[in-house]
Write a structure and sequence with these properties.
- The chain is built from ten helices and ten strands.
- The chain is α/β, with parallel strands linked by helices.
- The strands form two sheets. It has a six-stranded mixed β-sheet, sandwiched between helices. A four-stranded antiparallel β-sheet has the order 2-1-4-5.
- The chain is globular.
- It starts with a helix and ends in a 6-residue tail after the last helix.
- Bound molecules: adenosine-5'-triphosphate and magnesium ion.
- The site of magnesium ion (MG) has 3 residues, from helix 2.
Length: 247
C-alpha cells in the first residue's frame, strides 16, 4: 500500500470545518488530524468550540462547510451510528451511564451498539471490566458507583466498542489528584495496548502537557496553534488567549 494511503487509513481528520448556530459561528475553518497511536490535546477557553468539534466528528452536529474523513473514508454524510461502527467512540463531558443498570451491563451496551450478539457483548464486557481492573464492581448498579469508578465505566463502555479513535471530553473533570494520575495511566494504556488515536479535551493543563503528543488550541472557534506541548506552552498567542498571561 502506498505510504500516503496507509497514513490516511490510520487517521481521523476534519478539513476546513465551519459550524453555525443561528448567527453564532461556533467553529470556523478548523483543520484537525489525529492518527492511531497518537494523543492529540484539544484545549481552549469555555465556548471555544471544543465539544462542538467532537459532535462534528461523531456525526451529531451538521456543518456549514468542510469535510470529515475517517480511516481514509469521506464520512461527512454518514450518520453517527455508521461512524461508530467504523471505529469512532466518545466519552461525554457528563458521564451519562444507564443509571439503573449494573457496571457490566453499561459496558455491554457499548458492544451491543456495535451490533454484537448478546453473548459476545457479555463476554466482551467481562474482558473490558477485567482490563480496567474493575471486575469486583461487575454487579454494582451505576447509581451507586463512586464517581471515579463511574468515570472509568464510561470509558469502558466506549472501549467495548473496539474503537480505532476515542474522543474524550474532559475526562478529568471532578477527579481528585490520585484519580487523575490513574486516568493518565489508563489513557496511556488505551493508546499503547489498544492502539487507539485519542482526542483529549481537558482543562487540566498538567494532564494535557504530560500526555499529549501534540496540542491544538482553539479560541472563539478558530485554531490559534497546533504543535508539540512545549511549543504550545511557550506560544505568546496561546498564553494571552488561554493561559491568562499578558507577557
Ligand atoms: N446547540 C447549540 N445551540 C446554540 N449554540 C451552541 C450550541 N452548542 C454550543 N453552542 C455555542 O457554541 C459555542 C461553542 O460551544 P462548545 O460547547 O463547543 O464550547 P467548548 O469549547 O466545549 O466549551 P467548554 O470548555 O465550556 O465545554 C459556545 O458559544 C456555545 O454557547
Ligand atoms: Mg465542552
Amino acid at each position: 500500500m502506498p505510504a500516503i494511503i496507509a497514513a490516511a487509513a490510520n487517521r481521523l481528520q476534519v478539513d476546513r470545518v465551519t459550524v453555525d448556530f443561528q448567527g453564532l459561528r461556533a467553529v470556523e475553518d478548523v483543520d484537525l488530524q489525529v492518527s492511531r497511536g497518537e494523543i492529540l490535546g484539544l484545549i481552549g477557553p469555555n465556548g471555544a468550540g471544543k465539544t462542538t468539534l467532537v459532535n462534528v466528528l461523531t456525526g451529531f452536529q451538521s456543518i456549514a462547510a468542510g469535510e470529515v474523513t475517517l480511516s481514509g473514508m469521506p464520512v461527512t454524510a454518514w450518520p453517527a451510528w455508521r461512524r461508530a461502527r467504523a471505529g469512532l467512540a466518545r466519552t461525554f463531558q457528563n458521564v451519562l451511564l444507564f443509571r439503573k443498570l449494573s457496571a457490566l451491563e453499561n459496558i455491554e451496551a457499548g458492544a451491543l451498539a456495535q451490533g454484537e450478539s448478546r453473548h459476545s457483548a457479555h463476554t466482551r464486557a467481562r474482558e473490558v471490566l477485567d482490563w480496567l481492573g474493575l471486575s469486583h464492581l461487575r454487579s454494582q448498579i451505576a447509581d451507586t458507583l463512586p464517581f471515579g469508578a463511574e468515570r472509568r465505566i464510561g470509558i469502558g463502555r466506549a472501549i467495548a466498542a473496539r474503537p480505532h479513535f476515542l474522543l474524550m471530553d474532559e475526562p478529568a473533570a471532578g477527579l481528585n489528584d490520585a484519580e487523575c494520575d490513574d486516568l493518565a495511566a489508563l489513557i496511556r494504556r488505551i493508546r499503547t495496548e489498544l492502539g487507539c488515536g485519542i482526542l483529549l479535551i481537558e482543562h487540566r493543563m498538567s494532564l494535557v502537557f504530560e500526555l499529549c503528543d501534540r496540542v491544538q488550541v482553539l479560541d472563539q472557534g478558530r485554531t490559534i496553534a497546533t504543535d508539540v506541548p512545549d511549543a504550545v506552552r511557550r506560544d505568546a498567542r496561546v498564553r494571552r488567549a488561554y493561559l491568562g498571561e499578558t507577557e
